[in-house]
Specification:
Helix content is 17%, strand content 28%. It is α+β, with helices and mostly antiparallel strands and 103 residues long.
Length: 103
């Protein structure tokens, strides 16, 4: 969650990503979203979270990140608006990758 990164208030996606990277996390490749959706079949009802990834553009150019959702209508992978400057709720969840160790 954004608040677990030590961010106060309603941080922007840029602030969330910067803080995650300061803590040793990396952005996920976009393909993590579809792969997680296929693998995470027992997602609890009502849970949702975003993939911390470089935004991808929808058909009209709006920046999106993948969101994994389970609601009464089933398991979903959808695009969620991630416009620069948009403020996220402190409880909004994100998935990041661990930084690879250099050997």
């Amino acid at each position: 969650r954004a608040q677990d990164l030590g961010l106060a208030g309603t941080p922007t996606v840029e602030q969330i990503y910067t803080r995650a990277q300061e803590l040793g996390l990396e952005l996920c490749p976009a393909e993590v979203g579809p792969h997680m959706r296929l693998a995470y079949k027992d997602q609890p009802m009502g849970e949702w979270f975003c993939i911390g990834m470089k935004q991808i553009a929808d058909r009209v150019g709006h920046p999106l990140v993948f969101e994994l959702v389970r609601r009464g209508f089933g398991l979903w992978l959808r695009g969620l608006w991630a416009v620069p400057g948009f403020e996220w709720d402190p409880g909004d969840g994100f998935v990041f990758s661990l930084r690879k160790l250099k050997t």
